[in-house]
Structure formats: C-alpha cells, structure tokens
Specification:
single chain, about 290 residues, alpha+beta, Heat Shock Protein 90, 3 domains, 5-stranded mixed sheet, 4-stranded antiparallel sheet, about 35% helix
Length: about 290
C-alpha cells in the first residue's frame, strides 16, 4: 500500500491526473473479433493519508481505437498525396522559371518584359504557397514538448537573411510548452520584420510575467503597422506583411497560446505571444 508504480517494472501502466491507466487488447473476446480495453484505478485515501482501497473501471474503447487508426491512416494518405502534388508543382514551376529567364533574354520590348514580370510574380506566389503547405503538413503531428525559447529564436534566425537588421533575443531561461514548430512562429515574425519595406534596423525579443501567465514580446523599430491592418493580420492571406502570421497563430493555438500586435504606427511593430500560466517555466524561478 502506498507503493509507487515503477515504470521499469510495469511499463504498460502510466499515471494520468492522479489515476493509474493502461490499455490492453484481448484478441479472443467478442466472438474472436477482439476488443480494446482501457483500465483505470484511482486510490481511496483515509484520513491518515493511507491507501484504503481503489475505484477501478474498465471501458471498451474499441470504437475509439478503430476511429483513431482510421484517422491516422487517412492523414498518412493525405500527406502522401499532398507531397506528390507539391513535388509535381515544384517541377512545373522550375520549367516555368526557365522559360521566363529565356523570355527576358530574348525580348526587349517593355510591354513584354512587364508581362513576363507579372507571370513571374504569380509563380512566386505559387511557390510561397507550396512552402507554407509544406510547413503546415506536420503541425500537430508531433506531441507538444517543453521548448527553450532562446534555441527556437536561434533556429529561426538561421533561416533568415537579416541583412543590416540586428536581432537581440533576451529569453535565455524561458521554456514554453508548445508544438515543436515554435521556431516556425518566430521565423514568420522575424522574416516580416527584417523585410526592407518595414525600415527596421533592430529587433528585440524579451518576456515578462503576467498575472495570467507569461508574454513573449517581439518588437522592432520600423514603420509599424497601421491600425486598420491589425484586425486581419492573423487571417489567411495571399501576400503582404501578414503572410505566414496565420500559420504562426495556428501553431500557437495548439497549446492554448495566442498572439496579438500592440505596436504604435510609426514607432515599430510589437507582437505579444500570450502563454497560459501552466504553459511556461523559467529556470531558477520556481
């Protein structure tokens, strides 16, 4: 009584919210069709803190298991199909880019050059959508984990041509419980900020503890974002400054985080990622 369950001795048993839980498959049940069972036990403790009994339950979860397997199989097939489509589109775009390069070399008429530039811009838009769909494919496929924020920022910056823009992340001790694609969130925010059109020369990332959790703050010293544009920043868009922020918002929402823009137009953009109280930890703080 009161003995803790050893993961090495009973690897099939795990703890969930104070309960002991296990799943078993019994192949000879249900006329040989087999059943999936979920077993759980909750300890009953007396006034002295001693375990005096338990409440046990056994549930038939065969339908849920079959549904989960079907969903995983369908997801695998959809990912395979989308991968094939992305590959074929990328190949066809490569051919199109080749023809465009030849067209620019062959023709000198301004009208033709302008026409070719329009085609190239449309092709660039298609390529951006392919890249975003490739990133979106794996979102939610891997369980969330505790991720060091500083490392995620460093991973994101390594994918960006920052030019003359200086980036200072001051988040060394902070970890957040997030989908593994947290660096993709930072990538899209920093990529937009580093765009020459923003006029930014400096980006700073910090964090602060709030009454209801924690906030990661990413701000730059560029032109900022006009108030009428803020409402649509995190909806799906085809292009412009907000491209990719829809994807960032989707990744954050998986673990209950949210994002908003609170900058002052003319003084720079300022993004706040709001983390629930159970979704962050600071080394040495607790």
């Amino acid at each position: 009584r009161g003995e803790k369950i050893s993961p090495d001795r009973y690897p099939e048993i795990r703890q969930e919210s104070g309960k002991l839980v296990a799943e078993r498959y019994l192949p000879n049940f249900s006329a040989g069709r087999g059943v999936h069972l979920r077993l759980s036990a909750t300890a009953l403790v007396d006034a002295g803190g001693n375990v005096s009994g338990a409440i046990e339950s056994i549930r038939d979860v065969t339908d849920q298991v079959m549904m989960q397997e079907a969903l995983e199989n369908a997801n695998h097939r959809l990912n395979t199909l989308s991968g094939i489509l992305r590959h074929d589109l990328s190949r066809r775009l490569a051919v199109l880019y080749g023809h465009l390069r030849l067209g620019v070399m062959k023709f000198n008429e301004p009208e033709v050059i302008t026409f070719l530039a329009g085609i190239k811009e449309a092709a660039n838009g298609i390529m951006r959508q392919i890249e975003i769909s490739r990133e979106y494919r794996d979102i939610g496929a891997t369980p969330p984990a505790w991720i060091p924020v500083q490392s995620a920022f460093q991973s994101a910056v390594g994918r960006i041509e920052m030019g003359q823009v200086v980036f200072h992340p001051w988040t060394e001790r902070l970890e957040v419980f997030s989908d593994p694609h947290l660096s993709t969130v930072f990538y899209h925010i920093l990529h937009n900020a580093a765009n020459s059109e923003t006029g930014a020369t400096r980006i700073i990332a910090t964090y602060r503890i709030c009454p209801d959790g924690c906030a990661i703050i990413i701000e730059d010293n560029g032109k900022g974002i006009e108030e009428p544009l803020k409402a649509s920043l995190f909806v799906q868009r085809e292009d412009s400054y907000g491209r990719g922020l829809f994807l960032a918002n989707e990744i954050l929402s998986i673990t209950g985080m949210s994002i908003r823009e609170t900058g002052i137009p003319g003084q720079g953009a300022r993004f706040e990622i709001c983390i629930p109280s159970e979704g962050y930890r600071v080394e040495g703080m607790f």
